[in-house]
Amino acid sequence: MISQTIQEQIRKLVLPLGIPNTVDELKLAVKEAFVITEEFSLQYMDSDFHDFFTLTSTDQIQHKDTVKVVFPSPVVLTFCYSGADVSTTQSDDALSSSSQDTLILSPQSSPDRLPWPQEFTIPCFSPEVQIVLEKAMEAYMRDGTLMSVQNVKRNITERLTQAIYAYTAYPSGMQIICVAEALVRKYPCLKEPGSLSGYYGWQMSLKYKMADYRRRLSKFGCPEVTCNTLKSKSPENRKPAKNVKKPRKAEVNYLPPYPTGQSEESLEQERLELLSEVKKRDNTMVIKAKMAKTFALRRHEVVNLSPRVVDFKDRWPALFNPQQINEEFRRITTLDLEPKFMQMLDQYTPNLLSIFCAKGGALGQTLQDKMVAIHQVF
Q1: Ramachandran region, residue 40 (left: φ > 0; alpha: ψ -120 to 50; beta: rest)
Q2: Region entry Disordered: which residue ranges (predicted)?
Q3: Per the count of CB atoms within 10 A, which of 13, 231, 257, 351 is most buried?
């Protein structure tokens, strides 16, 4: 067992067969355990220097050691418009917001989604904005003076939009309200005079800023938003607000992009190989790895093509295995299906028993007989 640090998250990795013999095998175990599709490297905590070093051999780590997952640095592209032409320049300032079409892209084009938090955490803003906010908070604490946000509103909403996108590209109205409320709770100096809530203007600004952010993402081919462009819709659905495809409440990884270095053709080849692998015995690990690798292709089929169940089963027979149903549920929602189901069943069982006991007639009598049998068991 070792602990893994992944994008500022600390996760525990259990290795039933012990630490693998090679780094590549360890990376494969990490990919499968945490559903990581993009490339990464591993670093281990050196006991002599108390710092992370690149892992070159699994002999360098032991039981309960800490291993860090390191992803490649993002690429920042700034698009500068000049008439009908578009020129692309690379910027060194990852927090630059001087252009309305500056996006921070990972090599996979879209990061793995996180579940929406119970309480939204306001991220840190650029240094100049933080300085302005600190001075404004001093004035607010001194005499209650509210801050004029004209000079910083664009920077704040841009940063909040990026933070929201880490969870979803299509936040609901309630989620946007949660962000606006968290903003004025952390920085009361940003409250709006004359507003009952103090954040209605921020709420509307974030709503339209997210729409603009999705528009910019569609230019880069982000599949989660390009599936809703007019060009991607059928002729009868070519209206902006018609048949919008977006995640439901529990869906975290709704429509991920293809893994780095993969295309639809290469993943289709993996799918064909998977058809032969499912016919072999004791081939669970290979099937699990290929199913994780082809996850994006399946989601593209489900979301964009809406195939019939019988056709989908012919193309993906491995998905209808109970183990892979659990794995697919975890890839989409980041939750384990069976523990979550049993947890919610325990939560709602008292209410269900009350409903059963309140039933009358022949059905009620049948339920009463079954309830007696249940009480005898427990």
Answers
A1: beta
A2: 231-266
A3: 257
